[in-house]
């Protein structure tokens, strides 16, 4: 049954617990990417937005939610360790420099967040602004490069990583790094369109247009590059009859792209301001789904699948109730935080 | 193996150990302080609701602002470790993953539940939920810190005294009995010792801050309150802690005798003296410059005058712990413990003479002892972790089998990056904490600030919990 439903991706008789955890893991990563993605994007947009008041509005628009967003990263790390210890033990050494850089970028950014408001001098504030930009940029790039490196394949011998320090460093990984930077910046710009007004909103419409076009180009390149670079991806996407479900992905991108660009121009109807952002999230959901579809059931392409990497049944059974109780609670409080801090941000506003 | 050998030609494993040691030693201070402060805050708010005296509430608000910053640094520095285990210790992560993965996941889930629900209310929610529910939130946060600590200590204790698992065909430890894993033989002792250590370290820091302000103004009722409470804690709990430490020593002797031999500096099996001082010479296998009290070592460990205790010669040299490190770190911890005990006694004497708030030399002494508890914690952990070597899972998995296949330049580079960034970021954070501590508590102390960026931390929105530095 499950085998048929998944077009044979889950072999008949395979244990289902690892599949359940793969779904949970994918969900946590997706939540992290779309939530922290737009607030990292705000940092990246500091590269083009230099006005002090505008920067304050941008930071204030994410201030109530960014650390809640980052909790998904911690949850992802600990769940990966709990459910797929082999993947944790192989992937982290494989992309070691990227992991360390990403963490340091995030720490720097988090600190800049707090300290830029308390800088006593202009120079100091400028310095923390640069840290905010730099940290966001580095973290976003590393996340993309980690993804690209993993897609490209990780050599594993004897349950351990068997490549070198920079084996992940391929043109494809670097390209993915830039792709994620652009994607996050696009999310950030559309978020500001939703949450700000006036000149800042207008500026962001312009940036979002450029970034949106860049996104579509990237989709095109990844869509052609990854199936061509690896035969298994090619078969996954283009074999009969899988071509029917896989056709959903490019079609959704086209529809989302159409809605995105038409609503980017349309500035008179206030409640349309959120539509580009929602389309942006849609882009990410589609690409993430496509990605998962490409590699499933591998967790460390090309050789380790989720059943090989999963913790023993006793460990998974012990962990599952905790996650099933906690994830809905975390989602509830996330939603609540967004609800409390809804609405447009005015200059100098601090949600008093 | 002697420390000097590591320093002259380190291997990737040595640097990875140093790096993890640095990160964890830095990190541990903040959760320990959070555990102590959270319970202290619960007591203060309870006392306020009970007695209706506003001074308790002012002390509460003063320490709440500091707690928020300490908690934040603890969370961020912990994030680094969550990924470092896999990055530097891939072999370990894979083999013990089925056991420790779920324990650490549960720790994360507990911490989130806290941060998500109740820390926000504690920091910003008094107006919205009223004092009673607010007090419940404070209590839940403090209980949550204790539960978090329980998971972490369960994981660590299992590494020290493993049980409840079998070895899988793929080299992984396979859990058989979760209760046995979580309550491994050293876990209860370690828990008591660590929780009391957190309380004491917090008490000495709180007392030190109180002493600092008393020197300038010894009439401030808020200062006097927390100074006095901290010293009651020091006077009562330090002796209990020394007792708990001794009991944990007995437990260690039973399960990890080589660690005890290294701590005590006992190189040969037999009736042991208590070595007050010495310099272990690992190469020659003896203690140089030994200052010892005969028979006392045996008496403490076996409770018999002529009790026989194994020395390091009972084990092949490649199974010795890092004797020279644990020997000294253990002595520093014990010495600080007795100094803290002495300060507690002095405080009782001054209280009896009714000059606790007026004796200026005592205030200087208390200030000097402010970091003592944290140093003792780091030294205690150094002792127990270097004493566990050469194993990561005692007797079952060696440190060498635990490492990731990463190279020396990688691990040196990442260590350098970590040191630089920690210094910049956490250095700034600690400076802010010190500035907050340097500000004298006031009557009608404010809640966490309004100028800083806002954040939600879940159910209740509000402002950043971090108080801006006082405008000079």
Largest sheet of chain B: 2 strands, antiparallel
Largest interface, Cβ cutoff 8 Å? A-B, 68 and 73 residues
Low-confidence stretches of chain A: none
Total tally of structural domains of chain A: 1
How many domains, in number, for the residues of chain B? Answer: 2
What spatial order of strands do you see in the largest sheet of chain A? 1-2
Structure description:
- Chain A has helices at residues 2-5, 17-45, 52-62, 66-83, 85-94, 96-115, 122-152, 171-195, 198-229, 231-238, 243-265, 275-295, 306-309, 313-340; strands at 156-157, 160-161, 298-300, 304-305.
- In chain A, strands 1-2 form a two-stranded antiparallel ribbon.
- In chain A, strand 3 and strand 4 form a beta hairpin.
- Chain A is mainly α.
- The mean pLDDT of chain A is 85.
- Helix content of chain A is 75%, strand content 3%.
- Chain B folds into two domains: 11-184 and 407-472, no CATH class; 188-267 and 316-398, no CATH class.
- Chain B is built from 15 helices and ten strands.
- In chain B, strand 7 and strand 8 (397-398) form a beta hairpin.
- At the A-B interface, helix 4, helix 5, helix 6, strand 2 and helix 14 of A face helix 3, helix 4, helix 15 and strand 9 of B.
């Amino acid at each position: 049954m499950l085998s048929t439903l998944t077009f044979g991706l889950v072999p008949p008789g395979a244990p289902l617990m690892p599949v359940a955890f793969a779904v949970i893991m994918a969900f946590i990563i997706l939540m992290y990417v779309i939530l922290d993605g737009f607030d990292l994007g705000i940092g990246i947009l500091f590269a083009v937005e230099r006005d002090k008041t505008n920067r304050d509005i941008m930071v204030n628009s994410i201030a109530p939610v960014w650390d809640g967003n980052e909790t998904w990263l911690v949850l992802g790390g600990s769940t990966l360790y709990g459910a797929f210890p082999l993947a944790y033990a192989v992937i982290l050494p494989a992309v070691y420099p990227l992991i360390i850089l990403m963490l340091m970028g995030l720490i720097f950014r988090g600190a800049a967040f707090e300290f830029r408001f308390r800088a006593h001098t202009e120079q100091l504030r400028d310095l923390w602004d640069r840290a905010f930009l730099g940290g966001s940029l580095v973290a976003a790039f590393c996340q993309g490069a980690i993804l690209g490196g993993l897609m490209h394949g990780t050599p594993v011998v004897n349950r351990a990583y068997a490549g070198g320090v920079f084996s992940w460093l391929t043109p494809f990984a670097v390209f993915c790094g830039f792709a994620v930077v652009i994607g996050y910046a696009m999310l950030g710009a559309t978020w500001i369109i939703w949450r700000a007004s006036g000149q800042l909103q207008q500026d962001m419409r312009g940036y979002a247009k450029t970034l949106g076009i860049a996104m579509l180009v990237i989709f095109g390149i990844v869509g052609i590059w990854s199936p061509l670079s690896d035969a298994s991806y090619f078969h996954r996407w283009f074999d009969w009859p899988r071509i029917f479900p896989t056709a959903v992905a490019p079609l959704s991108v086209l529809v989302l792209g159409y809605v995105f660009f038409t609503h980017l121009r349309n500035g008179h109807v206030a409640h349309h301001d959120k539509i580009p952002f929602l389309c942006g999230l849609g882009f990410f959901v589609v690409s993430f789904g496509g990605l998962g579809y490409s590699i499933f059931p591998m967790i460390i392409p090309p050789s380790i699948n989720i059943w090989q990497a999963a913790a023993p049944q006793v460990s998974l059974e012990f962990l599952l109730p905790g996650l099933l109780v906690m994830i809905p609670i975390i989602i509830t409080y996330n939603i609540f935080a967004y609800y409390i801090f809804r609405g447009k941000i005015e200059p100098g506003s601090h949600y008093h | 193996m002697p420390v000097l050998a590591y320093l002259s030609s380190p291997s990737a494993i040595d640097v990875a150990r140093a790096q993890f040691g640095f990160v964890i030693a830095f990190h541990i201070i903040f959760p320990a302080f959070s555990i102590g402060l959270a319970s202290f805050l619960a007591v203060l708010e309870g006392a306020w609701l009970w007695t209706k005296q506003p001074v308790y509430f002012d002390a509460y608000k003063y320490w709440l602002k500091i707690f928020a910053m300490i908690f934040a640094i603890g969370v961020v520095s912990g994030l680094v470790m969550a990924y470092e285990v896999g990055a530097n210790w891939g072999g370990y992560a894979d083999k013990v993953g089925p056991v420790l993965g779920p324990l650490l996941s549960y720790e994360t889930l507990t911490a989130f539940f806290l941060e998500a629900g109740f820390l926000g209310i504690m920091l910003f929610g008094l107006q919205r939920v009223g004092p009673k529910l607010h007090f419940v939130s404070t209590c839940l946060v403090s209980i949550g810190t204790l539960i978090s600590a329980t998971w972490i200590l369960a994981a660590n204790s299992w590494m020290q005294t493993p049980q409840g698992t079998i070895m899988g065909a793929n080299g992984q430890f396979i859990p058989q009995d979760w209760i046995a894993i979580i309550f491994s033989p050293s876990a209860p002792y370690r828990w008591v010792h660590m929780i009391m250590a957190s309380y004491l370290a917090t008490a000495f820091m709180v007392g030190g801050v109180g002493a600092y302000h008393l020197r300038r103004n010894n009439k401030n009722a808020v200062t006097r309150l927390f100074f006095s409470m901290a010293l009651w804690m020091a006077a009562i709990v330090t002796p209990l802690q020394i007792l708990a430490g001794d009991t944990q020593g007995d437990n260690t002797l039973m399960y990890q005798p080589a660690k005890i031999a290294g701590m005590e500096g006992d190189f040969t099996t037999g009736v042991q003296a208590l070595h007050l001082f010495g310099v272990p010479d690992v190469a020659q296998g003896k203690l140089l410059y030994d200052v010892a009290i005969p028979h006392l070592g045996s008496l403490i460990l076996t409770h018999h005058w002529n009790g026989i205790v194994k020395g390091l010669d009972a084990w092949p040299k490649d199974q010795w712990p890092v004797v020279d490190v644990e020997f000294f770190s253990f002595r520093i911890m014990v010495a600080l413990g007795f100094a803290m005990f002495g300060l507690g006694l002095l405080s009782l004497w001054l209280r009896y003479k009714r000059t606790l708030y007026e004796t200026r030399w005592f205030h200087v002494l208390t200030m000097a002892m402010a970091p003592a508890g944290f140093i003792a914690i780091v030294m205690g952990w150094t002792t127990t972790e270097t004493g566990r070597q050469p194993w990561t899972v005692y007797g079952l998995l060696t440190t060498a089998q635990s490492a990731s296949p990463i190279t020396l330049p990688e691990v040196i580079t990442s260590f350098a990056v970590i040191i630089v960034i920690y210094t910049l970021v956490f250095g700034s954070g600690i400076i802010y904490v010190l500035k907050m501590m340097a500000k004298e508590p006031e009557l009608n102390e404010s809640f966490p600030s309004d100028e800083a960026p806002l954040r939600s931390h879940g159910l209740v929105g509000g402002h950043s919990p971090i108080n801006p530095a006082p405008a000079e």
